[in-house]
Amino acid sequence: MGNSGCGGALRSVFHAVGVAVGDDDRDVEDIVNTVVDTARTGRIGDGKIWVMPLHTVQRVRPVADP
Length: 66
Hints:
mainly alpha
C-alpha cells in the first residue's frame, strides 16, 4: 500500500452534518444564534454557517402524486 498523502496514517476521523433551513430574513439572527449555541463544542472544527438568499423553492414530486 502506498502513502495516501495523510502522513502515512489517518490521525482523526470526523463526521459532518448538514442542515438546511429556509425562513424569513427577520428570523436569520435568531436562527444562527440558536444553531451556534446548540452546535458549539468548544473544539476546533465546530463548523461554519452560511447565510444565503433563497430566491426560489421548487418541489419535486413523483408524477403519480396529486
